[in-house]
Amino acid sequence: MTEAQTPTPKAARVAHPPGVRKSARPAKKPELALTVVTRQWPPLVHVRLRLKSGTFADPSGREGQAALCWRAAIRAGGGRSQTQFAQAMDALGGSLEVRVGRHDTLFEGMTLATELEPFLALLADTVFRPRLAEEDVAHARAQQLADVAARYDDDDALAHEALVRFAHRDGAAGRAADGDPKSLAGITAAHCVAHHRAVLRAAVPHFGFAGAITADRAAIAVRAHFGALLTARTKVALARNRPLTPPKVVGRRLLLLDHPGRKQATVMLGFPTVGSKHVDQLALRLADAVIGGSFSSRLNLRIREQRGWTYSLHSFVRASPETGMWTVNWTPPRDVAPQSLDLVMRIVELARKDGISAAETDFGKGFLTGALRYDADTAEAELELRMHAIALGLGADWLDTYGARVGRLTRKAVSAALRAHIDPSRAVAVVVGDARTLLPALMAAQAGFAVEVMPYRGAPESAKVVGVPVTLTPGPSPVTPVVDAKTP
Hints:
2 domains, five-stranded mixed beta sheet, six-stranded mixed beta sheet, Cytochrome Bc1 Complex, Chain A, domain 1
């Protein structure tokens, strides 16, 4: 069950007090954005609170502030020390963490169904009454710096973060979401107190519950513990997210993050496309399944199965309400990385030119509907999908109508969406690997990317490379014989 705007349940309605005429209307209850997925077993409740304020609200020079301050906030609250707060949460068999994205902040917790009320009281303490002492900020800073450092040892995570910052280098998404040592060092407890006040005054909340709970019980509990979040808010500049604008990509450009000694190269390729609310978004997801998003896709067949150039290849349509990017990533040996990039570009070009077949369309429909059933196999997973769809502007009934909308997709519509929104002449790529061995071959690759080299710990948004206007890749370098004569 899901409700975008939940009415006040009967149990919470108050009778007319004495002396008040029936015609007099009681004060209007503030709106409650609530999503509930009810499954009575196991007797657990997963709790979500989403606030529409994320790292896009970080001031320039204090990148990472939102993530740092909310990490500090969930350490202690309600007059308790950090130890007392942790003991109170443990006594409920509960857990609580916070994730701060570019657009929003998400509190995630779980507790026994019988302990929901005291759990929500603890959550309310972290939201309304966090301690935010210097020791909390210092501890959160150490955690955040450790996460930033760990990314440099994870080439996949490094490539993805670099691609976003490289592609959006002139916009809000081009900044480091978690900050860096310099920006984090300048954030104090006073900054966190000011940030916390501003977010609570400006951010619109969305609550979610999954498990052994009904919509009526959830609504009553939220109003009891979080009523202050539902009242009218005043917009505050500090909490207002900066707009996300599409990346300005002209021609093909590639950022090579030099990681000396790497035997493999991690490649992340991106094509700017439309946002989540665009009518062609679902068609693009089907095209993704056919081209790279499934194990039997064209790219996996050509790159992994026939040539053995990577253990796995993945592609995704990543989108916000305003804009999106189709990304492809794989990890080839460094001696074939340029040839693999040539081949991926050529396969994408041919897919855009020729479209997909009727058989591929049928496969894509089955893949999308099957994947969704798998992704929503638990109450918690279904809640995540429903709340994410609402955050993307897709509506509360997106999950319920998904199968029917997939079923209406046609080969013609998917091929047209592919041609309209995936432009191989506007591609951006990040390669993580040993520049000494990779650079000459990347510069000579047939795909024709303009290349810039930067240390792997550098700032991708500071890159200056301008794309080369290429509209067609001649073809892949002949390294491994092609099994299928029709294979490009």
